[in-house]
Design goal:
about 240 residues; Spore Coat Polysaccharide Biosynthesis Protein SpsA, Chain A; about 30% helix
Length: about 240
């Protein structure tokens, strides 16, 4: 059984969001050039920084296990999911500004939405990688730009990233209540919830070969005003 979700809903009962730092107008401009040809509206959501998410580590009795940059990333996605709830959006296409889509992305998304299982809450729109794949892997990646993948919609055993995803309102309602305070990185927390709570009863989908993640320097640079007792070394998201 499938639920009724259409690409044409974007801008109405659904939205597309891109997460982008205020300081990275260059990345937003590049992102807009890559996605402009698809013609659907994309709303920008300001990405969080360590300095702006200090209150997410406000409990002195609880050890902090998430790095400041991981917390900031978690809050950025939290804000998108909160907007979904506040605006009562049935689903959303959530993008980070380093997503590089395949040319026929709309057709692929339509294909995924048409097959969407009733119990699915989330879909990761997968990577196309060229580096280190070998001849066979490179050929498969290149073919993704021309022909449909042999398994465009499959149940995933885990999430592989957050750079491009389809999120339902059910997932947003569930996860918003369980992210604060962000003592774990977003992916780690979601994996934990899948193993321990109701989230594991709802299918996660992986739709491979729809986008790759552009390599770039870290989005969130160390902020001199950010005060932390921990040593913060890993800033790449």
């Amino acid at each position: 059984m499938t639920r009724s979700m259409r690409l044409e809903d974007l801008g109405h009962t659904a939205k597309a969001f891109v997460i982008n730092l205020d300081s990275r107008t260059d990345r937003l401009e590049s992102f807009n050039k890559r996605f402009a040809r698809f013609g659907f509206p994309i709303e920008r959501v300001a990405a969080s920084t360590p300095a702006s998410t200090v209150d997410w580590h406000s409990d002195p009795e609880v050890p902090e296990t998430a790095l400041a940059a991981e917390t900031a990333t978690t809050v950025s996605h939290y804000r998108v999911y909160k907007k979904m709830i506040d605006e009562q959006l049935e689903w959303a296409l959530v993008l980070e500004d380093d997503a590089d889509p395949v040319p026929d992305l709309p057709r692929r998304i339509k294909h995924a939405l048409k097959q969407w299982p009733e119990d699915a809450w989330y879909a990761q729109l997968g990577y196309v990688r060229y580096e280190g794949l070998g001849v066979r892997g490179t050929a498969r990646a290149l073919a993704a730009y021309v022909v449909p993948s042999a398994n465009e919609l499959r149940i995933a055993t885990r999430r592989d990233g957050t750079h491009m995803s389809i999120v339902t309102i059910e997932f947003a309602r569930y996860i918003v209540e369980r992210l604060r305070p962000a003592r774990l990185a977003f992916d780690v927390r979601v994996r934990q919830l899948r193993e321990e709570e109701e989230l594991g009863q709802h299918a996660y989908l992986h739709v491979p070969c729809l986008a790759r993640q552009i390599w770039s320097q870290s989005d969130i640079q160390p902020d001199p005003e950010w005060q932390s007792s921990r040593s913060i070394q890993r800033w790449n998201l």
